[in-house]
UniProtKB/TrEMBL annotation, chain A:
Gene field: EIF2B2
UniProt KW keywords: Cytoplasm, Initiation factor, Protein biosynthesis
The protein's name: Translation initiation factor eIF2B subunit beta
Function: Acts as a component of the translation initiation factor 2B (eIF2B) complex, which catalyzes the exchange of GDP for GTP on eukaryotic initiation factor 2 (eIF2) gamma subunit. Its guanine nucleotide exchange factor activity is repressed when bound to eIF2 complex phosphorylated on the alpha subunit, thereby limiting the amount of methionyl-initiator methionine tRNA available to the ribosome and consequently global translation is repressed.
GO cellular component terms attached to this protein's record: cytosol; eukaryotic translation initiation factor 2B complex
Organism for this UniProt entry: Oncorhynchus kisutch
Location in the cell: Cytoplasm, Cytosol
TM ranges: none
Automatic annotation (TrEMBL), chain B:
Biased composition (Acidic residues): 418-432
Spans through the membrane: none
Protein name as catalogued: Translation initiation factor eIF2B subunit epsilon
Subunit comment: Component of the translation initiation factor 2B (eIF2B) complex which is a heterodecamer of two sets of five different subunits: alpha, beta, gamma, delta and epsilon. Subunits alpha, beta and delta comprise a regulatory subcomplex and subunits epsilon and gamma comprise a catalytic subcomplex. Within the complex, the hexameric regulatory complex resides at the center, with the two heterodimeric catalytic subcomplexes bound on opposite sides.
Length: 351, 671
């Protein structure tokens, strides 16, 4: 009886989460940042691990994969959900391997050397039952949660290395990570920030008010003035929604034009993004399927013969980016693929 | 004492809290009580017709759920089993749904009024509720309107009965239904329907979303007035009785947000295209808000949505605003734009689809052209067919090769005549077997000229019943103007007959007056009441009265009267009835009207023109007519030859001369 209750409770929570995801993306629900989203997902995954019925790692992975598929289908633009699912799957694999006793390194990495020297293909079935697997997995997920909690602080701690006195920094729209980054630097340095307002939702205004409260000199400019002002800017620091597998970005609308303007003036473009935003997806040029197109009403009232497109995200190619600052330090865009292989198992790229 | 006061206060607070915590309820009427979508809705109820491959009732339920409704009552009448099945399988009947759906079916509902009377009888709603139809597509957030409504009711002690949600939309916009076009007079400050206040605006730029926030009194009012059938009856009743009952209706006008009701196929076309162009965000095709397996699709540039497993042939183009359901295969060199295609369809090569709406399992062969048409489930369109605008192919119809259907053709597997006979039975029982057996017995041959050599189906005429006589007939696609030259003469004839009856009545009155010696005041009273009964204007009353009086001797004694006899009998009558005349002839214009009536009569009665002088003389003496009026009439009133001829009459000229002299004398005396 209690088991059945737990299960129904679990399904209810999953359904509620899915409904929230759907509604959250549509703007009718509460707007959440990616960090919160990641945390909620991890809580839910931990609960699934704790409460669902599974006997071996394979079962658990199957369950989590199914739920993960449903969650990503509910809101494809919210990539942190899928990222967290993949992280948890990787955790399960690691714990399983550790329980088995073999070291993680040799099993996971595919390399040319391994291909040549491998005898027979050893199939991992994950069928063995280990008593402490559940506890280990839950502990590892808790570690993941602590990591998630600390990402913003870790990134902000690196601010002093990158921002110098009397610099002019440009940013676009509103990013909590960048806000924390700049606020941390403002404790010791004096600099000037230019914020592009990012129409039509104009989130840059909120960013500017937040920064000015801490005493940073802030200027808000319209999106059209970005190129004109770029010549006076020392650095461009922006946040992003997703970091793609090739080092490119899926960021808020308008970022691509900022990146191009920065490249034209040879201004360094720095991205502050925590590791949970790194996604194994790749941008495909033939379709905008990764792009969420929003409601047209902020732009125009309804008209019969006019089609209004109001995309939410932009793709920024990796050539335009100088540096990624994440909670594990600064990295070049060309190194992102390597970081990704550490975070996710190749078989989990497609859920 | 103070503690008791404190307790009372606490009591108030909790009751307020309780009021606010009451779950928001909604009444969804899943039946439209009209036949606008016949013959399509013969097989499938209107609420389940797919709009963008999702049943229309799903849009309404999603709109209600996202607004925060927690309890919905769905009322079904026509084909309620199908609606019930659909809802039980949908996500709203899952235990985790935030909106609890109760389905109430009855065969006895014939109108919105019946549904609301049932709501009142079963005491289903405790508080303000949202009233909506099953075919409303909207993304408006009604919580603001709800707050205003509740606030108004609290402040004004329940005077405001209903708040109607309108959307600002320019006149003539595609998503405004022509039949529902409304001009609204509203008080600008308080946003209620009114005309009598200081500042009111008249607006034509409002689109009726058919979403209303009603107070519980609405259901009671419908029970009290059992002749209220539609929402318009209700609104009219409230506005007319505003002074007596004191109820008011308010408006909520929204600028953003989209709301429309699919009331005919024209609206279906525009709402569907608005949905594909994402005006109804977040209810977009790729969002898959109904949570059905396999329903998701990907969204690409130019609003092209593709479902899973769609195959596109070589050289085919999906230009813009296209939605393709899953498992559909499209042939080579097709050109598709502004269309919605359902699941499991097969489309051949060289097909041109423009503003076509195709539902599931449709099979289209090569070289077909479809423009602005609806093709329902299971239909087959063979080679080289051209469907012109506004065609409808109902379920399972086959249209043969090499055919071009003219605009506005409706083809259905149900024979049009079968509808009238089986009407009552089908309405009451949606027992499918009954329908099938009747189909078999009445299988008439298909006309190859209408549906092609291999075709199957019957052409359904738009106006089957008594709408043929009306000028604005309703067809599936909206209103159609029927130029009907006979209608004008009919209306004239009816007016004339009314005048005729009135005349006879007046005659009867006067006769009785003579026989029974009725006082003239009572005669006036009677004539006035006849005036209201027959809706005659004052001027006409007076003219007809004059005529009747002047013809009275003819009526009594036959038409073969000499002039002498005529005047002999008429003049005393004039004297008797002079008060009646004086009652109606007061202003200068009345005098002229009376004179023209006299003239008309005597123009007809040529032989008695000499009598006219005597009549006029008598009327002047009795002070029924004034000399100025007579002189004016004489000098200016000649409109045609006959009347000019009349004025040349000797007697009349002498009379006019005498009148002038008399006037001069009287004016001299006056000085």
């Amino acid at each position: 009886m209690p088991g059945a209750d737990k299960e129904t409770d679990l399904t209810e929570r999953i359904e509620a989460f899915l409904a929230d995801l759907k509604r959250g993306g549509s703007g009718t629900g509460p707007l959440r940042g990616s960090g919160e989203m990641a945390r909620e997902t991890t809580y839910l995954l931990r609960r699934i691990t704790a409460q669902a019925r599974w006997s071996s790692a394979g079962d658990l992975m199957e369950i989590i994969r199914n739920e993960g598929r449903r969650m990503t289908a509910a809101q494809p633009s919210e990539t942190t959900v899928g990222n967290m699912v993949r992280r948890v799957l990787k955790i399960i694999r690691e714990e399983y391997a550790r329980s088995r006793g073999s070291s993680e390194e040799t099993e996971q990495q595919e390399s040319l050397h391994k291909l040549l020297t491998a005898g027979e293909l050893s199939e991992e079935t994950f069928r063995e039952h280990f008593v402490h697997l559940k506890a280990n997995v839950i502990e590892a997920i808790n570690e993941l949660l602590t990591e998630l909690d600390g990402t913003t602080d870790n990134i902000a701690m690196q601010a002093l290395e990158h921002i110098h006195s009397n610099e002019v920094i440009m940013t676009v729209g509103r990013s909590r990570t960048v806000e924390a980054f700049l606020k941390d630097a403002a404790r010791k340095r004096k600099f000037h920030v230019i914020v592009a307002e990012c129409a039509p939702f104009c989130q840059g205004h909120e960013m500017a008010t937040g920064l000015s409260k801490v005493g940073i000199e802030t200027t808000v400019i319209a999106d059209a003035a970005i190129f004109a002002v770029m010549s006076r800017v020392n650095k461009v620091i922006i946040g992003t929604q997703t970091v793609l597998a090739n080092g490119g970005l899926r960021a808020v609308n308008g970022t691509h034009s900022v990146a191009l303007a920065a490249r034209h003036h040879s201004t360094p473009l720095i991205i502050c993004a925590p590791m949970f935003k790194l996604s194994p997806q790749v941008f495909t040029t033939c379709s905008l399927s990764l792009n969420d197109v929003n409601s047209c009403f902020p732009v125009l009232k309804i008209l019969s013969k006019v089609n209004v497109h109001c995309p939410v995200f932009d793709y920024v190619p990796p050539e335009l980016i100088t540096l990624f600052i994440s909670n594990i330090g600064g990295n070049a865009p060309s190194y992102i693929y390597r970081l990704m292989s550490e975070l996710y198992h190749p078989e989990d790229h497609k859920l | 004492m103070s503690s008791r006061g404190g307790k009372q206060k606490k009591g108030n607070v909790t009751s307020e809290q309780e009021e606010e915590e009451q779950p928001l309820q909604a009444v969804l009427v899943a039946d439209s009580f009209n036949r606008r979508f016949f013959p399509i809705s013969k097989d499938q109820p209107r609420a389940l017709l797919p709009l963008g491959n999702v049943a229309m009732i799903d849009y309404t339920l999603e709109f209600l759920t996202s607004t925060g409704v927690q309890e919905t009552f769905v009322f079904c009448c026509w084909m309620s089993n199908k609606i019930k099945d659909h809802l039980l399988k949908s996500k709203w009947c899952r235990p985790t749904s935030p909106n609890v759906v109760h389905i109430i079916t009855s065969d006895l509902y014939r109108s919105l009024g019946d549904v609301l009377r049932d709501v009142d009888a079963k005491n289903l709603v405790r508080n303000d509720f949202i009233l909506v139809y099953g075919d409303v597509v909207s993304n408006i957030d009604v919580s603001q309107a709800l707050q205003e409504h509740r606030h108004r009711r609290k402040v004004d002690k329940n005077i405001s009965v209903m708040t109607m949600v309108f959307k600002e939309s320019s006149p003539g916009h595609k998503s405004r239904c022509e039949e529902d076009d409304v001009i609204v007079a509203m008080d600008s400050k308080s946003k209620r329907f009114s005309m009598g206040t200081d500042e009111f605006e008249i607006r034509h730029d409002l689109l009726d979303c058919h979403i209303s926030i009603c107070s519980p009194q609405v259901a009671e009012l419908f029970t009290d007035n059992f002749d209220y059938q539609t929402r318009n009856d209700f609104v009219r009743g409230i506005l007319v009785n505003e002074e007596i009952l004191g109820n008011q209706i308010h408006l909520y006008v929204t600028q953003d947000g989209y709301g429309a009701r699919v009331s005919n196929l024209q609206m279906y076309d525009s709402v569907s295209s608005d949905m594909v162009r994402r005006w109804v965000y977040p209810l977009t095709p790729e969002a898959n808000f109904t949570d059905q397996q396999g329903q998701g699709c990907t969204h690409s540039r130019h609003n092209v949505y593709r479902g899973a497993e769609v195959s596109l042939g070589h050289g085919s183009q999906m230009e813009e605003n296209v939605l393709i359901g899953r498992d559909t295969s499209i042939g080579a060199n097709c050109h598709i734009s502004n269309s919605v295609i359902g699941n499991n369809c097969t489309i051949g090569d060289n097909v041109v689809l423009d503003r076509a709406h195709m539902w599931n399992n449709v099979h289209i062969s090569s070289n077909v052209e479809i423009h602005q048409s609806v093709v329902c489930d299971g239909a087959v369109v063979k080679e080289a067919v051209r469907l012109n605008k506004q065609c409808v192919l109902a379920y399972n119809v086959v249209i043969g090769p090499n055919l071009s259907l003219p605009e506005g053709t409706v083809v259905s597997m149900h024979h049009p005549e079968e509808e009238e006979e089986d009407d009552d039975d089908e309405f009451l029982s949606d027992d499918q077997e009954v329908g099938h057996s009747k189909d078999k017995t009445r299988q008439k041959a298909f006309n190859p000229a209408e549906v092609g050599p291999e075709g199957k189906g019957y052409i359904w005429k738009a106006s089957m019943n008594d709408t043929e006589d009306e000028e604005l007939a309703q067809c599936l696609w909206g209103l159609v103007l029927n130029p009907d030259p006979e209608s004008d003469s009919e209306s004239e004839a009816s007016e004339e007959s009314q005048d005729r009856t009135f005349q006879l009545e007046v005659l009867g009155t006067l006769q009785r007056g003579l026989e029974e010696n009725i006082v003239c005041d009572n005669l006036v009273l009677e004539i006035n009441s006849l005036k209201y009964a027959y809706n005659i204007t004052l001027k006409e009353v007076m003219q007809i009265l004059t005529r009747v009086v002047l013809e009275y001797p003819f009526q009594q004694q036959g038409t073969q009267l000499t002039t002498l006899q005529y005047t002999g009998s008429l003049l005393p009558l004039l004297k008797t009835w002079s008060p009646v005349f004086k009652n109606y002839i007061k202003r200068a214009q009345d005098h002229l009207d009376c004179l023209s009536a006299v003239e008309e009569l005597f123009l007809e009665q040529d032989t008695h023109q000499t009598a006219m002088v005597k009549v006029l003389m008598k009327m002047y003496q009795l002070e029924i007519l004034e000399e100025e009026a007579i002189l004016k009439w004489f000098s200016t009133g000649a409109t045609n030859d006959k009347s000019r001829q009349l004025r040349k009459n000797q007697g009349l000229q002498k009379f006019i001369q005498w009148l002038k002299e008399a006037e001069d004398e009287s004016s001299e005396e006056g000085e």
